Amino acid sequence: MSGEAVGKVRPRRREVRRQGLAIGLLVLLGVVSSCSQSPEVAEFAAAYPRDASPNGTVREFAVVAAPAAISLFDGRPFDVWAYNGQVPGPTLRVRLGETVRVRFTNNLPQPSTIHWHGVRVPNAMDGVPGVTQPPVQPGETFVYEFTPKDAGTFWFHPHLRSSEQVERGLFGALIVEDKVPPPYSRDELWVLDDWLLTREGALFAEFNTRHDLAHDGRWGNLLTVNGRLTPRLTVRPGQRIRLRLLNVANGRVFVPDFSGLSAGVVAVDGLYTARPFELARLEMASGNRLDLDITIPPDAAGKRFGVTDRFTRKVIPLAEIVVEGDRVETPQFASPAQAHIPSWQRPESATPVRAEFKLNAQLGGPFGVQWTINGAAMDHGTHALPEHLEHFPTGEFSRLRLVNESYRLHPMHIHGLFFKVLSRNGVPVQEPHFRDTVLVHPKETVDIGTVPEDRGRWMMHCHILEHAESGMMTVVSVD
Ligand code: C2O
Ligand code: CU
Question: How far is C-alpha 304 from the chain's CA centre?
Answer without folding.
Answer: 31
